[in-house]
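As described in the Methods, two query proteins were run sequentially through the folding procedure within a single session, without resetting any intermediate state between them. The first query and its resulting structure tokens are shown here.
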Amino acid sequence: ELSFELAFRGSRRNIAISMNTLSTGEGRGNTTGVDTNLGGSARLFWQQEFHNLVMGTDVDFGTLDSQNIVNGSQRLDRWALYMNDTLTIGRFSVTPGIRYDHTSSNGEFWSPSLGATCAVADSTVLRAYAARGFTTPPLGSTYGTGFFSVPNPDLKMEKVWSFSLGFETAALKYLWLKTTYFHHSVSDALTTQPMEEGTFKPINGGKQRREGVEVEIRTTPVYHLSLTAGFTFTNAEDRNTGEVVKDIPRYVYDMGILYDDSRFLRALLKGRYIDWNASPENNGRYSAMIWDLNLSRKFSLPGSVAGEVFFTAHNLFNGDQYLFDMYQSPRRWFEGGLRFTF
């Protein structure tokens, strides 16, 4: 069986950048930026008795316009190719994969992965996963300028080896539960280097260990309504000093209400709170939960073509949740698009 899926997406949001960061408390006013992103993805599925092969590509074109960006505007264009195959024999399955990513700002990266599952009961599955991955530095780190920041166009991607082990079960009455232990070994982590003139330059200089646990819960639907909740704890340590690394989320809480009627509408109202564990000098704010509203509806087209229209309202209640006061949370913003399956 062969099928094909195509999706398009786009967003445009205003970003407020505060310049009130002098140690004297002297105000420097605010500047604004516009973050624009267009992209899409395509996936090809091939199913056979023991195989479930997926091949795909992701493409994104992003632009950040701001007075605090070199030349007033910079682009981050990304494209990727990937392939993975799930081989299933009885209660066991194994999924090897490979992915190649290319960016216009920070180079390229190869990401191998290997996952495995075992169905120990009809409603309980054990999972294990290992992968090499990366994080692309934001344009604000690569090209950002300001009273205290110096751009570094030579920044490389943060590299990580990730390992996880967990299970999911529906054996509990009215509840679905998933829990995962994870361990990330990070190299070339972003850090800052003090400069002689009193400014700071972002560099790839850190080695970190991040480990913790994730828990997800979902109730059984009643009249198409269900409740969701999640929790993540992360302990981040500097591998050289053993100290807790600041500016990395320590606790994350999720909660949501899901309405899922496949014949009419899928709607999810979801809130997220992040304890950023920020350094005091960052003047971060994260007392509010950020709520997003996601709406989608599937439809059929002639032949074997199926489509889906989706719409998302981000930061629905204009909450503040940010690590640095120079890069504050965007106000309410929207995105939407179409997905097609052939």
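Immediately afterward, the second query was submitted; its sequence and tokens are:
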Amino acid sequence: MAVETRYALSREAHIAYQVLSDGELDLLFVPSFMSNIELSLGHSAIGSFMERLARFTRLIQFDRRGNGMSDGAGSASTLEEQLDDVSAVLDGVGSRETAMIAVNEGAALALLYAATYPERVRALVLMTPQARLVSGPGYEWALSAEQRSAAVQVVVEQWGRDSTENPWLVFGGQRPDQRAAMARYQRLAMGPGDAAAALALAGETDVRDVLGSIQCPTLVLRRQGDPFIDERHCRYVAEQVPGAHYVQLSGDGQIWIGDREEAAREIEDFLTGVRPPLPSERVLATVLFTDIVGSTELAGELGDTGWRELLEQHDALLNAEVRAHRGRVVKSLGDGALALFDGPTRALGCAVALGKLMHGLGVSIRAGLHTGECELLADEDVGGIAVHIAARISALAGPDEVLASSTVRDLSVGSPFRLESRGEQRFKGVADPWLVFAVAAESPSRQT
């Protein structure tokens, strides 16, 4: 299969991609933390699987930022940056609506994209998906942070070696030629230092709160005898994604090992029978509330004219800063505002920047953020429990303080912001408690 590697510009990064076939159904292959699209088709197992998928789709593959042919080596990228990368690739190939197929922890990126941009994703196929990689409350079967750190250390030490001590080679198959091909694949996907950074970021990522927001048909696949990915990872995703279909395939190891035809038939039957989703009135977004601290007293001190002039300056700065961080102001709240963003890192950056700008006006603001499913209402307004939680979090903040929910923390891993726990909080009208975090610091070297 002769294909051309091309590049899509995603802000400052060039993302390598290939279009492998010309079927009517677009299918984007989302890899795990490592990939090299120049090598995948040449691997006996992976290549054969990709060629089978290409028979009934317009199959698109890409190297994630920091992998293979794409820019970004030397630093782990956030999921938010990778959402932009996916959009750049889809725009580059002219895809308005695609199905997505993802493997292992790559499922986190596919799930987040489908929840954030439901109008662009018609279906999901998740092969041995993992929404979280380390154990925690309600997720006790995963490795502990210490166990995973030790396992990652072994992977990094053996990176790229054609050795029985390299545990990752088995993902390409057990035959000597397959193991050698996977060792080369590792070396040309990324260096061991970049692998360590990517694996560390993956270990901190948690997209469990996203699962309930998936609106498209979803297929979850796992081989019955897979010795590497605990079945409970996959069943958890299938149980939490509304209407997801779970299938256990026969055999061992990764989906592309063994009877690939069985897996391909399941995927083909699922995707060709999927109806396009209806236009969505729900979207995953980050909600930001801000307000001026002590506004009543300040208005009294300034008088009507002075207060009106201050609010005009406040609104002008706020609107400009929200636009600069690719958000939109939903509505003014008198002495504050409600704004919406398609990513938590941009929302955090906007909140921090606003605090600094408002100091120039001689005022302090408080801010609260939460990422969740929002209902799109008439007149471009938004509603839903995510808006309610963000408002409650904002009310807890003190002067010059930015508070965020645990979901914002989980989805902004790798960002320049350091979030410190403020403990568990209960909100009126919300059944379960939420962990709240305060923005403590940021690194000037990273951009939002």
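The chain has a mean pLDDT of 91. We note this only descriptively and draw no conclusion about the first query from it.
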